[in-house]
Design a protein that fits this description.
It contains 1 helix and 5 strands. It has 124 residues and is of the alpha+beta class.
């Protein structure tokens, strides 16, 4: 049969002995949790934040290096040649008629090396 007094005494002894190990377990658990959080932040930094900063830096350098005569492509897909630059605006010559458009500097996606076929002189 079950003796409740012996069971309660055994339970009280186990609780008393595990009280010290509980504190050690909680401290170890907190340390591992902090280590995991630091590890997650480091992974996010190296996989997401750092590459985005590098990309933003390259775009900023490209926009600052623009000059008249550069062939560019805008974020809307318009190819043109820079006629003049102001603080935040760029004037483009677009098409074979050299129509001029004024665009925001941030709307430039890339500087093109090769001439655009649609902008070239008509071939006979």
């Amino acid at each position: 049969m079950l003796n409740w007094n012996n069971l309660l005494t055994a339970l009280a002894e186990t609780t008393a002995t595990t009280g010290t190990t509980d504190a050690a377990t909680q401290t170890g658990g907190m340390i591992s949790t902090v280590i995991m959080l630091v590890l997650m932040v480091a992974i996010f930094y190296f996989l997401l934040i750092r590459p985005q900063r590098k990309k933003d830096k390259k775009v900023k350098e490209m926009l600052n290096a623009l000059k008249a005569g550069d062939r560019i492509c805008t974020i809307g897909g318009i190819y043109g040649t820079i006629v003049s630059l102001k603080d935040d605006t760029v004037t483009l010559a677009v098409g074979s008629a050299k129509n001029q458009m004024v665009m925001a500097r941030w709307a430039i996606r890339s500087v093109e090396d090769a001439p655009v076929e649609n902008d070239a002189e008509p071939q006979v």
